[in-house]
Amino acid sequence: MTTQKLASSVQGLQSSAIRELLKHSKMPGVISLGGGIPNPELFDHEGLKMAADAVLSTHFGEAFQYGLSEGYPALREAIQQLSADRGIQCAADDVVITSGSQQSLDILARALINPGDTVIVERPTYLAALQVFSLAQANIESVGTDGEGMIVDELEARVANKPVKAVYIVPTFGNPGGVTLSEARRKKLVELSKRYDFVIIEDDPYSEINYTDEVFRPLMAHAKAIGNQDNIVYTSTFSKILSPGTRVGWVIVPEWLKRAVVNLKQTTDLHTSTLSQLMTYEYLKTGRLPGQIAMIRDAYRHKYQLFASELEAELGDVLSFHKPKGGMFLWAKMNNGLNTTRWLEKTLSNGVVYVPGEFFYCNDPDYATLRMSFVTATDDQLKEAVKRLKASL
Ligand code: PMP
After folding, report:
1. For the domain 2-44+290-391, what is the CATH code?
2. Does 171 sit in the ligand 1 pocket, CB within 6 Å?
3. pLDDT of 15
4. All structural domains of the chain with their residue ranges
5. Structure letter (DSSP) for residue 3
6. What's the CA gap between 119 and 109, in Å, rounded?
């Protein structure tokens, strides 16, 4: 009854299915392919300790004090440099520090979306982005993906028809699909955003976890050449390359959006934890991040290769998947049309969990799909997980 007192925008808000699943994954003996969480064994204990010591000895007063809503200036400068290495030319002033990309998405949705505005997402897409856009009361529509990422021709047919406010995309090693937008499609998407005047919300948490030698330039890196610098917003995070618990991410915004984003950041939480920002800044100063990224990439690539080959050997006839070029996820489809939401009960009783694909669709889900994360299980657990999946058929 009292739930009627809730704002209508939150009445339909569900707890993330993945967070619910994580509860099961903590049960003794259960192997989790569920949560998209980084492997904690790879956290750089020594480097983070050095950073923490430096913060306490040289920034003590500052670290425990309020800070600027835009973020700690020296960290914004360091992120500008990191962005330049990814091919993005921006000023430190264009960078706003957030409490993770999740907050960037929430702030951007509030800055851009009026109830009923259309936001286009990939099919499938990141579950928590769907939550953000539905909380903003957007009309969410989806465009299909294939091995080259979002099918941009399908998007063109849609945007040419009716106005669209924004396109949300994880172009590199996506979550959950693991797919990467091809270079030709990247250019076309940036061109379409110019021609049809919609904002691209580019979400890039995974691009550093690249298993290949190919370079995937962010959409924002194409903006200048295509003359579309006003319509692309880019968010990224230290969550997958350093630590998710510190909650430090950032958003790079065009001039017209800056004031609104900073004001929303201020009304949300004043600023991201000064302690976390300073630790991140001091960590970057140690010069250890590139080595840390290389180590994470090698470890995840190894796990991916092992897991994929086990899956192919044991379940190749019932399950198919695109081979991701990086990231943390393997997205698969059951060729026999098995409903993976129902199947989960069975696999859970056999001691293995994954995320059923249905949660990653804004409508009309494909129930035969599933997302598996291979980065936290040990090698032996990955092999055992495949055996348990097979036994659950
Ligand atoms: N976007 C995507 C696609 C993600 O997978 C995640 C993390 N699961 C986020 C955003 C949020 O990351 P953060 O920890 O930076 O808030």
Report:
1. 3.90.1150.10
2. no
3. 66
4. 2-44+290-391, 46-285
5. G
6. 10
